[in-house]
Amino acid sequence: MIRVLVCGAYGKMGREVLKAVHKDEHLSIVGAVDLKSDFNDVGDIIGAGKTGVIVGNDLSMVINETKPQVMVDFTNPEAVMNNIRIAINNGVCPVVGTTGLSEEDLQEVRDLCEYTKVNAIISPNFSIGAILMMRLAQEAVKYLPQVEIIELHHDQKLDAPSGTALRTAELIAQVRGTLRQGHPDEFEKLAGARGSELAGIRVHSVRLPGYVAHQEVIFGGLGQTLTIRHDSISRESFMPGVTLACKRILTIDGLVYGLENILD
Ligand SMILES: NC(=O)C1=CN([C@@H]2O[C@H](COP(=O)(O)OP(=O)(O)OC[C@H]3O[C@@H](n4cnc5c(N)ncnc54)[C@H](OP(=O)(O)O)[C@@H]3O)[C@@H](O)[C@H]2O)C=CC1
Ligand SMILES: O=C(O)C1=N[C@H](C(=O)O)C[C@H](O)C1
Fold this sequence. Notes:
Layout: E1 2-7, H1 12-23, E2 27-33, H2 42-46, E3 55-56, H3 59-66, E4 70-73, H4 80-89, E5 93-96, H5 103-116, E6 120-122, H6 128-140, E7 146-153, H7 163-176, E8 196-198, E9 201-207, E10 213-221, E11 224-232, H8 239-248, E12 255-257
Parallel strand pairs: 1-2, 1-4, 2-3, 4-5, 5-6, 6-12, 7-9
Antiparallel strand pairs: 7-10, 8-9, 10-11
The structure holds NADPH dihydro-nicotinamide-adenine-dinucleotide phosphate (NDP) and ligand LZUJQKHR.
NADPH dihydro-nicotinamide-adenine-dinucleotide phosphate (NDP) binds next to α1.
């Protein structure tokens, strides 16, 4: 059994991770952390009866007391780097789904992993459908280089654009480079009308109640468009990826960025 601590245990993703880890025969929840801890038993959060694992609010203390091998983090962009540092410096391998990490943050984690010989997995999206959407987009852009991205999420999401949209744009740009699209004299009558931009790719962010996590990658060519769309209609969609990462993390080497790199 791999000993797992869940950070962000009361969050939308944290609760789902607790359920998935609890159900997995190779994983065991030994610790849980959230800011607003009222020292509940995790079994009460997931409706599984008493487990004896209590939600704490001090990550270092919970690590000390519960000796996890893996920390799963779904918290927020402000909290995540500190959690990663605490985990790695205590010999605990972080599996991170929290988005909003910068290139500098990733480099810091890479360096920490190398220095401590503790492994880490960070993925902006843990659903297989989203990984396939990105892979297919990299294929499509070879033939249809003009592309825009629309991501649609629930209205409680903090970061925009989504980590998935940024990663998709990065992966597309690795294949096609930076390309100038649209009319050279185009202008915005309202600031932001054309969305944000990464490597010449426009990214549009929609936030509404009713959505979970969705993305369209739209390619345009002469007389035609191609749309690759992925929908996470429930947060269960991320769980096979998260539990796989918890198992693979002990045998990788250093930092792995992107679920796609542990699938093959
Ligand atoms: N990679 C992937 O596949 C996916 C990634 N995500 C990402 O995961 C993150 C979490 O999403 P979601 O569950 O919807 O967010 P929520 O806001 O529902 O959950 C985050 C939880 O973490 C808690 N928290 C905040 N700071 C800390 C801290 N320092 N230590 C412990 N807990 C803390 C929050 O408490 P409080 O509310 O009091 O602040 C909250 O309970 C986001 O960055 C999101 O983009 C989401 C889905 C899939
Ligand atoms: O906040 C979310 O919900 C999600 N966040 C991730 C992102 O920013 O891409 C993954 C997924 O889209 C859900």
